[in-house]
Amino acid sequence: MHQMTLAEIARGLADKKFSSEELTKVLLARITQLDPQLNSFISLTEELALEQAKAADARRANGENGALLGAPIAHKDLFCTQGIRTSCGSKMLDNFKAPYDATVVSKLAAAGTVTLGKTNMDEFAMGSANESSWYGAVKNPWNLEHVPGGSSGGSAAAVAARLLPAATATDTGGSIRQPAAFTNLTGLKPTYGRVSRWGMIAYASSLDQGGPLARTAEDCAILLQGMAGFDPNDSTSIDEPVPDYAAGLNGSLQGLRIGVPKEYFGAGLDPRIADLIQNSIKELQKLGAVIKEISLPNMQHAIPAYYVIAPAEASSNLSRFDGVRFGHRCEDPKNLEDLYKRSRGEGFGPEVQRRIMVGAYALSAGYYDAYYLKAQKIRRLVKNDFMAAFNEVDIILGPTTPNPAWKLGAKNSDPVAAYLEDVYTITANLAGLPGLSMPAGFVDGLPVGVQLLAPYFQEGRLLNVAHQYQLNTDWHTRTPTGF
Ligand code: GLN
Residue 146 region, left (φ>0) first, then alpha (ψ -120 to 50), else beta? Predict the structure, then answer.
């Protein structure tokens, strides 16, 4: 039962092969049995899950249908869930029970999803390895000595290990696509503004975007359908009609113009990954796509710009966690300053503290023009590169990551080494574009992802290309040994 995709579950429920309650019990038992190896959950919500499953079964018995009605999922632990701990992977929020549901959570609940729990993540979504979590590192089910990627490492490891079919995640600089690549999943970062950020604990507000992590493009389409749409509670949400993503999966790729940026294949890319990307290009050519070399000349400046903008926004967003308004409060403060210092010093881990300091520095008077303003100018140049490229091509293709998943602890003493691994993913966030990662093969038994980028609001195009690719390849069907 645990091998089923969301699409298969929807068919099975519609055909009354099993109930959502039965499936939910199987998956909860599987999580209890296998998750101790992975640490992919921060909280399990058994009671809520069984309640929601029974309610979904009752709705189906009343003749209702729907691709998500009765579908078990989990939420990354930065989506607020009413009455349930929402920790953001931090000691700071270890005892925070959200007073309301995030829009993504309430929309999916209304569509009939069953919430099995809240997944582990890098603290405040800062990281690429899921090692900065206060709740401990998450292991990669493909090799338990390796990281699953981050920051949505819990969602990725759980879905890859078949503990559940799909999960929500968020992507500020790659946190959906990179863990998808590291664990052989399909993950989609939507256009900025496509999915509401209301009730999603902020890391860098101009970059954050929620999206689906699943095993197939078809399942990403199903989950995105339940997440996307205008929300008046989020001032950056965009009032664009949401297409029927599942209905758009059968388009031909004949004549599809795929741009391959020459800058993607420079030094730093594992040559074995380069070969796998070439294979996926050939596969898409067989389906009728036309390949064109393009250039994204400002790509080299993206990492420094991102690692100024993201910490700058984080330093501002995280100022609310002061032990008074929100978050952990230290014992016996001597005075107000002591309360602030010790509450924040105890509540935030080292990576979060590092980024708050970098961000506060970049924003401070005297440095603002040199760092923050400069980074914003680079951001515009990165966007302009994409706009020029999309005049010539329909999608852009390349590797999701320069290397496969590294060993746990391998980059702990060198944060910049980890930042450099984000080279292919962060540009989509700087420009606000949608991006998808899908399985493209293996290197030393570890999964490799291929990334597709599209113009604004062309999530449907990404999903269609990925679905056609998955109809003709079987990388996405491979299961990690032991799961
Ligand atoms: N690895 C990037 C960072 O640490 C991206 C994280 C994310 O997308 N949340 O900022």
Answer: beta
Active site residue 413: no
For 65-84, write each residue's pLDDT tens digit. Answer: 999 999 999 999 999 999 99
| Per-residue confidence (pLDDT) for residue 328, from 0 to 100 | 97
Give the number of domains in the chain: 1
Examine residue 200 and state whether it is found in any structural domain, yes or no.
yes
Check whether 479 has a pLDDT greater than 90: yes
User: For a substitution probing ligand 1, which of 76, 88, 119, 122 has the most ligand atoms within 8 Å of its CB?
Assistant: 122
Answer yes or no: is 85 within a domain. yes
Q: Quote the pTM value.
A: 0.98
Pocket of ligand 1 (CB under 6 A): 125-128, 151, 171-175, 203, 310, 422
Which domain covers residue 187, as residue numbers? 6-254+441-449+458-477
Can you tell me the distance from the alpha carbon of 246 to that of 228, in angstroms, rounded to the nearest whole number? 13
Active site residue 175: yes
Length of the chain: 483
In a domain, 427, yes or no: no
Find the 166 Cα to ligand 1 centroid distance in Å.
20
Rounded Cα–Cα distance for residues 72 and 114 (Å) = 4
**Domain CATH code at residue 90:** 3.90.1300.10
Q: Which residues of 309-340 are buried (b: 16+ CB within 10 A; e: fewer)?
A: bbbbbbbbbbeebbbeebbbebeebeeeeebe
Question: Domain for residue 308, yes or no?
Answer: no
